[in-house]
Write a structure and sequence with these properties.
The protein has about 425 residues and is mainly alpha-helical. It has one domain (about 5-400): Proton glutamate symport protein (Orthogonal Bundle). The chain has 20 helices and no strands. The two termini are about 20 Å apart.
Length: about 425
């Protein structure tokens, strides 16, 4: 049985137990639903255990593996700028759409979740304190305290410095980080194999307290992600392909359809590279440009994932009654933006890598277990969106710089060049 099916069954089991307990008011069932809650807490602790090292190592591999950015040339640099801009738009759009649809969610779900015991969130800093706090005086202490955003800033700076080293010195650092990342990904796979039990134990008490309200709220969340992704493609990618790439919407979507279907079914951008190259050929993009932009996008472009994460931050903050003042919201946007570029190659990695953004706004990580149970459909949709964005970038840059010939550096991390299949989950 595939892991996502097993996790969905775990959620269904917890949902069923919780709903029956809530509707019948049976003391025995309510007691049973509450009794399994510590198992859910243990599962969340397992996820927390791997978050800090996994975020640090995947970021290091992704940034250091690119080497000196000057090697990318003009097309590569502009491709990175395109992916960065659309990722930021994705985060903000996801937050906006989720906020707009929250009135359709049932407030009783939030009351049910608030009935659980959670560690209180620390006092959130002001804007100035937040900006100063981005630079960790002690990166080790930041890691120990799970202050993930300062740790991310340090990791990016350290990785950029490592990337500027000569190849003989840079390669051993990247190889070590890749080995650590591989071990952590294996550990995450092990954790996810117990996820069905963990999700069951997380869902049962929540649904017992909130009844149908939680189910309705999760449906609203999935619809918000779906609406956000459709709006994103229609309002960002199609106009960019038409205005900057001179490819009309009908022709563009027809060329992308095969790649989108493969991305939708495999939830992997790297696995879609051959199909994306064919789509680029159909759009008249030269292999000189597509041969750079598409592998780069398959490695780094996670705008659809960023939209999902932005929506998730707003939804979970609402669910746990956590306010989102400007400083904490800005931190969540920054954390989501940075982490989206190096989503680890594990199932539902976009859910697991939500931890930095959630910790920045003071939302408990318990909600990750519930999102894991409903992630399969958003996972397929956001991967298809990521694929569309990568093809859009190739079409735009071919139009702008048709004669540029730049190759993607072979040392780039996470691009699937090592033969390993990496899922967006994304």
């Amino acid at each position: 049985m595939k892991i996502h099916v097993a996790i969905a069954l775990g959620l269904l089991g917890g949902l069923s137990l919780g709903l029956v307990a809530a509707l019948t008011g049976s003391p025995a069932l309510l007691t049973l639903a509450g009794a399994v809650e510590p198992v859910g807490t243990a599962f969340v602790n397992l996820l927390k255990m791997v978050v800090v090292p996994l975020v640090a190592t995947t970021l290091f591999v992704g940034v250091a593996g690119m080497g000196d950015l000057r090697r990318l040339g003009q097309v590569g640099t502009l491709a990175l700028a395109f992916f960065a801009a659309t990722t930021l738009i994705g985060v903000l759009l996801g937050m906006g759409v989720m906020q707009a649809l929250l009135p359709f969610a049932d407030q009783a779900a939030a009351r049910g979740v608030s009935g659980a015991t959670h560690a209180p969130a620390g006092e959130l800093p002001g804007v100035v304190d937040f900006l100063v706090g981005l630079i960790p005086a002690n990166p080790v202490q930041a890691a120990a305290e799970s202050a993930l955003l300062p740790l991310i800033v340090f990791t990016i700076l350290f990785a950029a410095a490592a990337g500027a080293l000569p190849e003989p010195r840079r390669r051993p650092l990247i190889a070590m980080a890749e080995a650590i990342t591989a071990a952590l990904i294996t550990l995450v796979h092990w954790v996810l194999w117990v996820a069905p039990v963990g999700v069951f134990a997380l869902a049962a008490p929540v649904f017992a307290r909130s009844g149908w309200a939680m189910l309705q709220s999760l449906i609203v969340f999935i619809l918000a992600v779906l609406v956000g992704l459709v709006v994103f493609v229609a309002a960002v990618y199609l106009p960019a392909a038409a205005a900057l790439g001179s490819r009309g919407p009908a022709r563009f979507l027809q060329a992308c359809l095969g790649s989108q279907l493969i991305g939708f079914t495999t939830t992997s951008s790297p696995a879609t590279i051959p199909a994306m190259l064919d789509s680029a050929d159909a759009l008249g993009v030269s292999r000189d440009v597509s041969g750079l932009v598409i592998p780069l996008g398959a490695s780094l472009n996670r705008a659809g994932s960023a939209l999902f994460q932005g929506a998730s931050v707003v939804f979970l903050a609402w669910l746990y009654g956590t306010p989102l003042p400007l400083a904490s919201l800005g931190g969540a946007v920054l954390a989501t933006f940075l982490v989206a570029f190096t989503v680890a190659g594990v199932p539902s990695a976009s859910v697991v890598s939500l931890a930095p953004a959630l910790s920045q706004v003071g939302v408990p990580l318990d909600g990750l277990g519930v999102l894991l149970g409903v992630d399969r459909i958003p996972d397929m949709l956001r991967t298809a969106t990521n694929v569309t964005g990568t093809i859009t970038a190739a079409a735009v840059l071919e139009r702008r710089y048709p004669s540029s010939v730049v190759r993607y550096p072979s040392a780039a991390g996470g691009g699937g060049g090592d033969g390993q299949r990496r899922t967006d989950n994304g």
